[in-house]
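Reviewers of the previous submission asked for a worked example of the structure-prediction workflow described in the proposal, so we include one complete record here. The input consisted solely of the amino acid sequence. No template or homolog information was supplied to the procedure at any stage.
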Amino acid sequence: MSRKTWPDVLQDILKEVGIAYVLFLLIFLWTNKVLFWKLLLWGAAFLVVLIVVMLLIKRVKTHKQSKWRTDRELLGWLRELKPWEFERYIAELFTKLGYKTTVTGGAYDKGIDVVAERDGLKHYIQCKKYITSTVGPNELRDFYGAIADHLAQAKGYFITTNKFTLEAERFAEDKPIELIDGNQLIKYIRLAEESNQNVKN
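From that input alone, the workflow returned the following structure tokens.
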């Protein structure tokens, strides 16, 4: 049985407190409406503060994840992320590397998950969080079809936590698309860490 971390314990406590809070609100709704509205406002304010704090904790935790992991452990952690979490992680990674990023992933992203802009040029990124699947030429063709009219002097990045097939690599050879597999992604992450460390020093 895995040991719960303090955020998990805090979440369990908040669930129990939340149930008791709702019950108290229902009681005061019928007995003391003035106190009911005060409690409701206090509770709403507390909830907003709590959400902000939890988001900050999660953000700090995410940024620190790669610092204590080996390359293999870090890659395994990346593969456990949800697709939308992986897209946001890649956006944050490119931000550390000096780009201004926007996450566009979703049901209607047309193959573009992140837009990274630097020096007036927009680069387009597709993220594939794979564990055992490999990226084939069909996915590269779809991605290239989505960005071909927008590249100009910029380029596309196709990033996966696994590998590309030989056919996919051949397809990208004469195109402005950089293929980043799991091992290369780790190198980018370490590069971003070194860059940030140099800036702090």
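The two ends are 42 Å apart (CA to CA). We consider this example representative of the routine output the project will generate in years two and three.
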